[in-house]
Amino acid sequence: MTKATVDAKETLNKVLETSHGATLLQVLATALAAIMESDVTALCGAAFDQRSDERVNSRNGYRGRPLETRMGTVGLRIPKLREGSYLPGFIEPRRRWEQAFVSVVQEAYVQGVSTRKVDELVKAMGATGMSKSEVSRLCVELDEQVEAFRRRPLDGEYPYLWLDALYVKVREGKHVVSKAVLIAYATSALGVREVIGVEVADGEMEDSWRRFLGGLVERGLRGVQLCVSDAHEGLKKAISKVLNGTTWQRCTVHFLRNMLSHVPRSAQGFVAAALRTVFAQTTAEAAREAMGIALKALGERYPEVAKLVAEAEEDVLAYLVFPVEHHRQIHSTNPLERQNREIRRRTDVVGIFPNGPSLTRLVTMLLIEQNEEWSVGRRYFSLESMALLKPRPQRELPALPEGAAAPAGAAPRATTDVPHQAAAARAVAPSRPAGRPPARSAA
């Protein structure tokens, strides 16, 4: 069926490119008009000007709309209904981010801050001649969706939280400034990724992050066990004050880049290999042993780097006390990079946003679509691995009658699911300090 459809489209494209374009354009207009008449007749339950007991709706005139085709522009007369609305199936409504993009370009055009590039974008998106009232109407509709998404309540627990910021140029009065787009991603207790927060701020100062995180908490954010981010001082202070008691994981990728910037290019391979060996370990004990070897090797040649690595050891290895099935995704902010690249690609098309609301509108619409894809897609973490974050509740076995002995050969009685409890204990047990030998059993 799919191949037949593709072949039909290819044949139609070849026909449209022939010298009979004018005739075919008229044929196409007639065919599309017939399709719309048929659709509306079915929706109304009766044909135009026909009396029928089965009629459920009636027409209310027409509205014009141009349709761009490879033969040229077809002027459609789309029937209107007295109740509800009708849009032909062959016209695909724009996706949310496209609507937001159009509103950004149109707003820049109407406010008189457009450049030749923006003017070309306006024409390409079919927005030539749009009035201020039309721009305002579109922006109001989008802003309602944006605010509903940004202010929605957060239900349930979110064990893992990733925080990041992107910088985009925005026009303020006669000046162009860089604005920080603060974004929060999280994984729910069911292992599903979500975009839980987005906000445009002046920068990554502590106050900006504290307001952002405080807003998440007010909306219901709870149960955060690990927060992953880079080592920006303002962000670190905000996490410690707003999410007090939450373990902070310093992004290992940002950390590695920072360490490489302190050594000559000729030594970067050596330093990177030493640190990557540490991050390749799957247990805290093995990682600390590898860290000791790395610190010794680095200390001989680059003592300043060795000092920085030693100071950051606890923060960059914090993820190792969580289930090993999650290590690849929680040791850095790399899982966000694909989405961040997509946001940068879309915002680079605009270049300079006409104002802050237009930036918030476009980025949020992109994130809404991403959030919907995650909600219906594959889980980020399995339910089984998420269950390791906390032990199961105790299960009390029925008591034996007084004086009765356990059956011969029966295993000792227990009140908990021991294998699961052991796995959970390994997942959440605090790691021992470097250099301290493991505790020996009294036996």
Textual characterization of the structure:
The protein has 443 residues and is an alpha/beta fold. Helices cover 48% and strands 14% of the residues. Helix 3 (96-110) crosses helix 5 (132-150), helix 3 packs antiparallel against helix 14 (356-376) and helix 8 (252-260) runs antiparallel to helix 9. The strands form two sheets. Strands 5-4-3-6-7 form a five-stranded mixed sheet, with helices on both faces. Strands 1-2 form a two-stranded antiparallel sheet. It has three domains: 13-81, no CATH class; 94-246 and 338-388, no CATH class; 252-332, no CATH class. The chain is built from 16 helices and seven strands. 26% of the residues are buried. The N and C termini lie far apart (72 Å).
Key attributes of the depicted protein:
443 residues; alpha/beta; 5-stranded mixed beta sheet; disordered C terminus
Put the structure in a nutshell.
The protein is of the alpha/beta class.
Strand content: 5-15%
- Count the helices. How many? 16
**How helical, in percent, are the residues?**
40-55%
Average pLDDT across residues? 78
Q: List low-pLDDT spans.
A: 109-115, 391-401, 403-443
Neighbour order of strands in the largest sheet: 5-4-3-6-7
Structural class: alpha/beta
Instruction: Please tally the β strands and state the result.
Output: 7
The H/E string reads HHEEHHHEEEHEHEHHHHHHHHH
- Termini distance? 72 Å
Write the layout of secondary structure elements.
Layout: H1 2-16, H2 21-44, E1 59-68, E2 73-81, H3 96-110, H4 116-124, H5 132-150, E3 160-172, E4 175-187, E5 193-201, H6 206-218, E6 226-229, H7 233-242, E7 247-250, H8 252-260, H9 268-279, H10 284-301, H11 303-316, H12 327-330, H13 337-350, H14 356-376, H15 383-387, H16 418-428
Parallel strand pairs: 3-6, 6-7
Antiparallel strand pairs: 1-2, 3-4, 4-5
Helix pairs in contact: 3-4, 3-5, 3-14, 5-14, 6-7, 8-9, 9-10, 10-11
